[in-house]
Amino acid sequence: MAALTEEQSMLRDQAKSWVTEQSPVVKFRAMRDSGVELKYTPTTWEAMVEMGWTGILVPEEFGGSDLGYLTFGVVLEELGRQLTASPLFASALVGTSAVLLAGNDQQKQALLPKVVDGSEILSLAVDETARHAPAQTALQATAADGGFTLQGEKTFVMEGMAATTFIVAARTSGTAGDESGITLFLVAADAAGLDRSSIHTVDSRGYAHLNFNNVVVAADSVLGQVDAGYADLQAVLDRASAGVAAEMLGTGAQAFDMTLEYLKTREQFGRVIGSFQALGHRAAELYTAMELARSCAEHALEAIDSNADNLAEVCSLSKCRVGDFLHVMSNQLIQIHGGIGMTDEFDAGFYLKRARVLETAFGNQAYHRDRYAKALGF
Fold first, then answer.
1. Each residue of 194-223: pLDDT tens digit?
2. CATH H superfamily, domain 123-227
């Protein structure tokens, strides 16, 4: 684990205490069973706002604490451990990153204070198919009457039913597959012609499908430069990948702890199963993979904070390595627990389902291996 500052250590302890006492996985189960459309509990979100987590990345001039991405990662890891559902990641990390990187002073002043107080929930709308491919953006933005008209669809938009403002990647020129010609837009969730519908996913989280039917936006809704939004989008996606990797690390670490506890307590043939050499070796391998994943995850977050010049490669490395660990760990969680691991009454299934969805978020392992190789010149 990286050497945390006193402030980061305090925040980690606060997050660990809060999720354990106020938002354990049993609360997630209750939320899932309640059928709430937002796919999170409003009181959970209000508590996060109250604790100041929504302002971790926001500069002090806009009401935040400006503590950086590693600090945010510390919180996300603890949330990942208990599968706590909220718009925190989508709005306060991904959406906020987009505004910080591409927004002008007026846009920052209009949005960031509201993100901090929880009245504004931002969400990035980038993917148009089940596969993550930002350059394949086809949603059309046509210049008209001093503004733009948006026509097309976005899918698997995180917290799409809860969002108040979407950051939409649209094509202002060129064709799908071109990196040039992509522009980012701020679009109000209640804009005329924008329809959203809930998508039911195995991890019981809030995703939405967006349909833009001649949605008119003003010229000042452009985030960054017209036709030149791809570089900003990639920078946002780097930060999203590093952030989701931190959450994935927490989910995988909790799966490891649950498995280790089972190995220490489950008895078979008159002895605890963890004493069998084959299972002991398996636990050692999983622990090694977890620590390697942690190093990659923390390195990426620190690289963002220090504005390193190799962000693309370290963020892709993080998402891929943590994804590899979480994939294997979630499988082992089920396998080592045996039959009970397959039941809905036991929590293991929640971790497996969440793992599979997080692996694909912002690009799966194959996507990031390819991106990493290209960043290194292969």
1. 999 999 999 999 999 999 999 999 999 999
2. Butyryl-CoA Dehydrogenase, subunit A, domain 2 (2.40.110.10)
